[in-house]
Amino acid sequence: MSKTPARTCAVLGLVMAGLTPAAQAQIGSGWTRYSPEFDVHRQGSGQYSKSGGTEKFTISATGVVGKTGQRSEIRLHNGYSSGQRQFEGYLKVVRLDGTKVSLKQTMMTGGHAFFMLSVKAEGGGQLYDHGNSGAGTFISGVVGRTIRVNTIHDENAGTLKLYLNGSLKYTRTTPAGKTWVEKYGAYKTLSGLGPITAEWSNVNLWRSDHRHLIFCTRGGAVFAENNGITGLRRRSSCWPRATRA
Prior knowledge:
Largest sheet: 9 strands, antiparallel
CATH topology of the largest domain: Jelly Rolls
Structural class: mainly beta
Number of helices: 0
Low-confidence stretches: 4-23, 212-216, 221-245
Mean pLDDT: 83
CATH class of the largest domain: Mainly Beta
């Protein structure tokens, strides 16, 4: 696998490095834009280029089912184990002669894939979660179209949400006690095939480091506990609220 010689100091789609003042994200409010370092990962026939705010990811080989080794991806160095993270980008599958290619990942450190927004050939190109085949198809006919993609991972609450063109399409429960990173580009999955050309434009990242205040009643009084533990719905006398750390 080839990489850029050194980590770059800003995500390619961002216009400013480092943290910036609070910004209005596409989904929700109270977010702060940030710019982690990243590597470009290329393997096999993977190719990468950038023009303006658009990044192009190409896998030119078909590859072999049962083997990986074909990729062109941005690997963000944005490891986190608490708080909320939002990814936004505009995805266009320019060409799809293959199938089951991952386009955006939220994964655990150590290379353990979890959420894999992927495209398969059926229906003019269908987006789905390759890491959870039971989730079904999110949208069809994506080849040649530009789709706005937002993922919001609330690590404290243990949820990952996918929005396509501003509409919530998918919510998945995430395991606790993990450290997470994100990738985007084109990666031929183990059961997939190339070729593919995909573009990501105007990629932005936000974070919101909130803790959860748990309001409980005890003897008629209301008190608050600082806690990030999930599963609080079992306690009928308590309800969570979020507050900025």
